[in-house]
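**Entry details**
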Amino acid sequence: MDSGNTAWVLTSAALVLFMTPGLAFFYAGMVRAKNVLGMLMQNFFSMGLVSVLWAVVAFSLAFGDGGAFIGNFDFVGLKDLADPDFQLPGYVGDLALTIPPLVFAAYQMMFAVITPALITGATADRMKFAAWVAFLGLWLVLVYAPVAHWVFSPTGWLFDRGALDFAGGTVVHINAGIAALVLVLVLGKRKGWPGEGMPPHNLPWTLLGTGILWFGWFGFNAGSALGANAVAAQAFMNTHLAAAAAMLSWLIVERLKDGHATTLGAASGAVAGLVAITPCAGFVSGMAPLVIGGAAGVLCYLAIQLKVKLGYDDSLDVVGVHLVGGIVGSVLLGLLADEAFGGLLFGGGSDLLVNQFIAVGATILFSGVLSFVIAKVVDLVIGLRVDDDAEDIGLDKSQHAEAAYNFGDIAMGRVGS
């Protein structure tokens, strides 16, 4: 065990947890005033339910030695993880952990917390809180844990065949992004969309959330080195450069298309870059993060323009930013990975690129199908969507009997509604 590595990963775990409140504010600023608490609550609730389920069973399913496709129940209730000398299945040789297994479990728990929380931006303004609770718990165990096992566990089939995902391009962003798309298709469009204007009620909150996400993402990516070392330093620099490049490229395209560079565009562009660099962070160097971030800013901007044409109501652009950004980063990794990791443009041949496509496709297929089944079951049993009156009143009042603002028109949900 290495005390410096342990301290860094513990710090990174705290940074990743901080990202979930950051995400809550990022999303809450973009919804209408009558739905602010509904959005905040869905994100904060993830910290509670997911953490409990992770400790009880999901960590064991993700990192237990059950085979290539899912773990087993060896670590239910965090069994054996308090022993600092215990090594998790597959973490041997060069992969041997230099941090206590309980620290690793805590760090991975924070990834599990934020991943389903990403979905809430797509379903904003119309999903029952009880339905979100049911979907969240089922999705964590049935979808997130298996995909995490495939990619993050050395015993998983995608890890074994050589697919790379440094910090969650497939496990986190593609996984949540395709689930978000499926869920909004089952849930249906918001009343009045797309004809009725539904502007963000508080863009300063969105920018504050972006800043917290950017800050926390250093723990997300650099922490995935699982040590205070040169790989962490590379991941840290790559993370920042990709976010910066994506913000600039998004704003350039936005300015050329619409005539204005907006604060919402700056926030969305930065997050798109952070998403795209996530699978690549420890595997690329030099100018690669600028290329990855720049491409993500342009492609994610273009992707969100399609939702009206295709007719799916992704309220806060989860599909355009997280699904598309995760695909962009995962595929570009096959081209731009350093020579040691087999990037095509650095003499590594096509094997890595092929494996990246397989990982992307498998994640989309598995998560998409299972998310659809879960959504339909929840809809049949308790209903996914609030009724028309509750949607008109807003989720704050109808689901939580509270109001985010208690003065004037804002308290009635009329400002920004």
In short: The chain has a mean pLDDT of 96. DSSP finds 16 helices and no strands in the chain.
